[in-house]
Amino acid sequence: MKNRITELFQIKYPLIQAGMIWNSGWKLASAVSNAGGLGLIGAGSMYPGVLKEHIKKCKKATSKPFGVNVPMLYPNVEKIMQIIVDEGVKIVFTSAGNPKTWTPFLQKHGVKVVHVVSSVKFAVKSELAGVDAVVAEGFEAGGHNGREETTTFTLIPMVKEKLQIPLIAAGGIATGRGMLAAMVLGADAVQIGSRFVASNEASSHINFKNEVVKAEDGDTHLTLKELAPVRLIKNKFYTELQSLYQQNPTIEQLKEKLGRARAKKGMFEGNLEDGELEIGQVAGLIHNIKPATEIVNEIITEFKEVKQTFNQPLF
C-alpha cells in the first residue's frame, strides 16, 4: 500500500494510531508500528522524564518507525522537544498551538512534522508553516476537539481542495470501511484513536476500556467549549457539569468544577463516576478489547476486501 504517507514515514500501511493522553504509551505505539502502522506515544500526559523512558522502551520494542504526539499548550514543551531530538525520534505530531513555533526546530534535526487541525483555515496555515503533513480531525473525534463542529465527512474534501501536502483523516474512523471512505474523500491516510483505546496494550485502565466497549450511539457529547472542547462519555461528572451549565457558569466556575487531573482519574485510574472519560462517537462500533496487532490486521483486511467489491459494478 504505497502512497505519500507510507513513503513519508517509511511504514507498510497508511494507518496511524493517535497519540492519546493516558492511553498511548510505548507498549501500544510499538505494537502498532510492529504491525505495519505508525504508533505514536502520547506526550500530553507525561512529564519529560516519563516521556524519555517511554521513548527508550519503544526503541527497544520495535525497529520500525514510531512518533510522539505533543500538545504544545503544555508547560514542559521545551524539555519535551529537546528529549525528542536527543533520543532521535524522527516523527512528531503537534497539536493545540501554532505550528510555526516548533516546526523549524524539529525539521532542522531531521524530524518529520505533522500538525493536527479541525478546520480548513488552520490546515492552510499549517502548510504555510512548512509542516510535512496535516491531520484534519472531524467533530466525531474523542478527546479535545475543534469548536467548529465540522464532521470528518465534510472536512476532509474541503481541506483536500486547499492542500498540496499529504492529508491524514481523523475522527469517527475505526474500521476498514471507515478507512476506505476517508481515503475516497481525499485522505492519504487515517489516524485512529478510539479503537486503540480498547486494545490490550493501551495504558488506560480496564474500567475505562470496558466502558468504551459498552458505549452506544448518543453516549458521548462535546462539552467545555469555553475552556478546551472535549468529547466525553456521559457519566456522573458529565451530568454534574451539565447541571452547572444550567446556571450560566463563569469560566472560573467551570475551571473549578473541572479541577486537576480529571482525565487521569477517569482514563488512567478507572474512576468511572468522577473522571473524564474521553472517547469518540465511533465507540458505538467498538465491541471488544483485543491486541493492537489484531486491530491493525482487521482494519487492513476489511479495507482491502471492501475496496475489492467496488471494483465491481454497483448497479
What features would you describe in this structure?
There is one protein chain. Helix 2 (26-34) packs parallel to helix 3, helix 3 (48-61) packs parallel to helix 4 and helix 8 (176-184) packs across helix 14 (292-309). The strands form 2 sheets. The chain has an 8-stranded parallel sheet with strand order 1-9-8-6-5-4-3-2. Strands 7-11-10 form a 3-stranded antiparallel sheet, with no helix packed on it. The model has no long low-confidence stretch (mean pLDDT 95). It folds into 2 domains: 4-203 and 283-309, Alpha-Beta Barrel (TIM Barrel); 217-282, no CATH class. Helices cover 41% and strands 15% of the residues. It has 315 residues and is of the alpha/beta class. It is globular. It has 14 helices and 11 strands.
Secondary-structure map with pairings?
Elements: H1 4-9, E1 15-17, H2 26-34, E2 39-42, H3 48-61, E3 66-71, H4 77-86, E4 91-95, H5 103-108, E5 112-117, H6 120-128, E6 133-137, E7 143-144, H7 152-162, E8 167-170, H8 176-184, E9 189-192, H9 194-197, H10 206-214, E10 220-223, E11 230-233, H11 236-245, H12 251-258, H13 262-268, H14 292-309
Parallel strand pairs: 1-9, 2-3, 3-4, 4-5, 5-6, 6-8, 8-9
Antiparallel strand pairs: 7-11, 10-11
